[in-house]
Amino acid sequence: MNNHFKFYFFILLCSIFYISFSKSQTIDEYNCLSNIFSKFNLSNSYPQNSTGGYGNVCNSKGISCSGGVVKTISISGRIEQSPQSAILTPNELFCLPNLDIILLQYIRVSTDVLFTKFGSVNSIYLQNIPSGAIDITTIDRPFPPYITYSLSCYDFNNTILNSSYINNVKYFYFRQSFVYFNINEGTNFTNLIDIEIWTLNIPDFSSYKSLYSVYLTLSSDYNKTTISNYAKIESFSIRIVFPQNSLPIPSFIGTNHVISSVSIIGQPFSKPSSMIDMSVGYRLNEIYMNNAGVDFNVNGEFPLILSKHISVNFQFGSFKTVPAFANVSTGSVTISRSGLTDLSSYGGSANFLDYSDNNLTGTIDPSYCDVELIVTNNKLTGTIPSCFTCYFGYPIVSNTGSWSTKPFYDRFKGNQFTNFIPNPGCTTFAPQVRPDPNSYGYFISGNDIGFDGNYYYLNGTYRCLLLTRLRSGKEINCVINNSLYGVRYASILNTWHKKNYTFAFISSPPDVSLVSVSLNTLTIGGTYFSSYIGQSIQTVKIENIDCAISATNFFEIVCTTLSTIPSSTSNSQLLTISNSNETKKFYIQTSDGYSNSMTCSNDCSTNSNGICDLSIGVCICNIGFEGIDCSPILCIDPNCSGFGICNTTIGECKCDTSHQGYDCSLPFLPCKSDCSEKLNQGSCNNQTGNCECSPNYQGSDCTISIPKTCPNDCTNPNNGKCNSNTGQCECNDKFQGFDCGIVKSVHYITSVIPCTIYGGEVSIIGWFGNDGALTLTSFNVSIGILDCILTSINQTVITCNLGAGKGTKDIKIINSIHTNVIFIGYGLFNYQNPIKTCPNDCTSPNNGKCNSNTGECECNDTFKGFDCSTIIEITTPSTNSSIDIDTGGVTIGNQNTNYEISILSLNEISIDGSTIIKSHPLKGNWSIDNNEGTDTTTTTTNSNIFKFSQKLINNTCTIIYTIEEIKLKDKSFTFGSTSFTVEKDSLKLSVLIKDYQYQSSLNTLQLIFYSAAVDTNNDDDNDCNKKETSINKSNLNNQQNLNYIQISKNSKTLVGRFINQVIADSRPTFMSSTIINDNNKNNNNNSIKIGLNLPHCFECLIDPDFSILVSSDFKESCDKSSQKNKWIIPVSVVVSVVGFSIIVTISIILYMKHKYTFKIISTKLKPYKKPK
Question: Model-level pTM?
Answer without folding.
Answer: 0.52
